[in-house]
Amino acid sequence: MRGSSLAFLPLSLLLTISEASKNYVVTVGKDSQLKFNPETLTAAVGDTITYQFFAKNHAVAQSSFDEPCQPLAGGVFSGFTPNPSTDTPSPTTFTITVNNTTPIWIYCPQTNGDHCQKGMVHAINAPSSGKTFDAYKSKAATAPTSKSPADGLPIGGLRLLTVELALGGNLTFTPNNITELPRTVVQFNFNPKNHSVVQSSFPDPCHPLDKGFTSGFIPTAVSPSGAHFDIVIPDTKPIWFYCAQTTGNHCQSGMVGSINAPTTGNTLEAFQELAKKASTSTIPPQAPLGGVLSVNGTIITSLDGNVFKPDSGLDPGAITDVPPPGSNMSSYIWNTAGGGQPDSYNWATGISDNATSSLQLLEFLDNILLAALIDGHTKLSAGGQWAGVYPATIVDTIGTLSAQALVHRATATDSLQHYGKALTGTCSYTIPSANVDEWLESALTILLLEIGVLIDVVAVTASTDAWLVPALATELGAKSRMTAVVNLMQNHMAAAAPREALVPSQLAWSYASQHWTSSCQGQSPSVGVDKAWPELEVVGVSNLGSTSRVGSVTFKLEGDWSKNNPGGLWIAWIAAWGTLRFTPVAADGSAPVPGELFGHVWAVLVNKGEGKVRDLVGITVAGPELVWVSQPRLGHQSRVVLADIVSLLIPVAPSFPNCGENKKNALYGQSKTAASRHEFHVMDVAAASLSTARLAVVLSSNTTSQLVSRPATPQA
């Protein structure tokens, strides 16, 4: 049983995320009015303002307060944006980002009709007295003839033209005859079914231009698809493009387009006529090239050839789909995770039985973690059961964690296949997720269990399978950052203890088998025990006085446990590495919680009140079970300061000095004797570095000290 949690982010983090994502839309000249609407707005640092343009030909330019209608040196300028419609916005927008709260003064520099002088002005964060918006508007009325930057090109913001592919099933680009300024970003949005954007020359339509751009094929069944391909217009020279889909001969059927085509001679119409007579369309073998492809916010740097495979994404099929060694992750997983498998695992000539069983256990646990993360990501995403509970930033983060878990699992599956060893069979996975809180608890428990096993495996394989140590140790930081994210989502501190807890592999397998899996097929992890220990159920928790610290926990004692252990029962509390405590269990099943423990700890029912962590396998009666004890005492500063950071790092520092060559041997297995003798160095360095990884999550999120603070007493 774990402490209750709230399905909300800490307020400071939630505000940071929500404020940073706010966007304002301002219309320019809508309904034939010489007006920005709204004329004024108040925006925070990080907010964005998007300007939409209407008839006839307007622009956004920045001035100073004292010189309205005149361009400010280094100020923003959208470029002029013609549009014949009074009520339908141009497909071209201009977006700026607010970098500080200094007032920003905006005007339309169109001189045909003296737009600025007639009141077409706008302000962001204008003061309420002194240099007010009304004062600026009054000064503009008597300003000299408007000017705009001499080159007429956009600067200081994003000028974006949106082009739809096959909108409504029509084989066309909308718009297809584009006149745009250099520096404009053209964003191609993909619609059903399977289309591409490829650059060609004018005389050879339907065939790729050497060193031209290509998106590759982007199949989708939904609209909007979330898939975009962006290019930047470099100059005023004509650009010709087409869809290379041969099913239905899209290019030959008119699915072509141009940017800045001449109005006579080599026009778009002439290009379309040439395309009708072109031979079968072709496309470069690799994509994307010459532009940026993104899918649901994830930048895709490479495809599997020239086709995006959406079925290789984050879905339950990823659990059973194990690629052969030497095969990289799909491009979607690679880009979502931030990378894939290493170039080389530095495999040795052989693998020990101990390493084989350890990798099989890690694959078993990774499959459970994948089932949990993919399920949570699906339910948190748009259209899911929990959509809207967390901001999109957090949902995307869960997607990244899922992809990273796939990359981590590849360490086990690639290595086992390389050595011709059996992979672990898949199971039916039951991850408690009746609500988002229950899912968070499940995900956190799986993560902490696997982190504990990774520390155990790194330590015991250092002397026999040295190549495996860096392969697994480099996963630990990412796994710990995952737990930090989940902790923050539960309104807990990211790192409540200075080290992670080591969990013996046998206990981890027992817990996972009892709680999350059934009907497993094929090879089972060989961990040295024949069956799982009984579950250890928490039936009551008592706090110390009026504090939130757990003082005692009551466990359900099955009828024969006390009878079969006349010498007594104890709870072994597995806490931050190097901390193992025993407390006696009373007849009612209650056991006191040692006062020096913080965060999540593992409770194991044992029949002996002393020993080391690995001794627990021989004396376990039931368990383990995860228990939340307490957060460290909050500090008095309102924000994280250097002293707080240093105090968090102090417990980590002793792990590193004076290890010398022995630490090197322990980590890389260059001396079996030294590695065996100094196994504690491996565990200490690994366990301590994970808390540093969690700290990095907090620092990167810019949260307040309610999330990070000093422990009240030294740890471990």
Per CATH, the superfamily of the domain at 164-300 is Cupredoxins -  blue copper proteins
| CATH classification, class level of the domain at 164-300 | Mainly Beta
Shape by Cα distribution: globular
Terminal CA distance: 24 Å
DSSP strand content: 15-25%
**Overall mean pLDDT score?**
83
Question: Which helices and strands, and how do they pair?
Answer:
Elements: H1 11-20, E1 23-28, E2 36-37, E3 40-41, E4 48-53, E5 57-58, E6 61-63, E7 81-82, E8 92-97, E9 104-107, E10 121-124, H2 133-141, E11 158-165, E12 173-174, E13 177-178, E14 185-189, E15 194-195, E16 198-200, E17 218-219, E18 227-232, E19 239-242, E20 256-259, H3 268-276, E21 292-295, E22 298-300, H4 317-320, H5 331-337, H6 353-380, H7 392-418, E23 428-429, H8 436-461, H9 468-489, H10 505-515, E24 517-518, E25 538-543, E26 550-555, H11 559-564, E27 570-574, E28 580-584, E29 590-592, E30 600-606, H12 616-619, E31 620-628, H13 642-649, H14 660-668, H15 672-677, H16 679-701
Parallel strand pairs: 1-4, 3-10, 11-14, 13-20
Antiparallel strand pairs: 1-2, 4-8, 5-7, 6-9, 8-11, 9-10, 11-12, 14-18, 15-17, 16-19, 18-21, 19-20, 21-22, 23-24, 25-26, 26-29, 27-28, 27-30, 30-31
3D structure, described in words:
It is globular and about 100 Å long. It is an alpha+beta fold and 716 residues long. Among the domains are: 11-141, Sandwich (Immunoglobulin-like), CATH 2.60.40; 164-300, Immunoglobulin-like (Sandwich), CATH 2.60.40.420; 642-701. It starts with 10 loop residues before the first helix and ends in a 15-residue tail after the last helix. Helix content is 29%, strand content 18%. The protein has 16 helices and 31 strands. A hairpin with a 6-residue loop joins strand 25 (538-543) and strand 26 (550-555). Helix 6 packs antiparallel against helix 7 and helix 6 runs antiparallel to helix 8. It comes from Coniochaeta ligniaria NRRL 30616. Keywords: Signal. Residues 1-20 form the signal peptide. InterPro entries: Cupredoxin, Ser-rich/MCO-related.
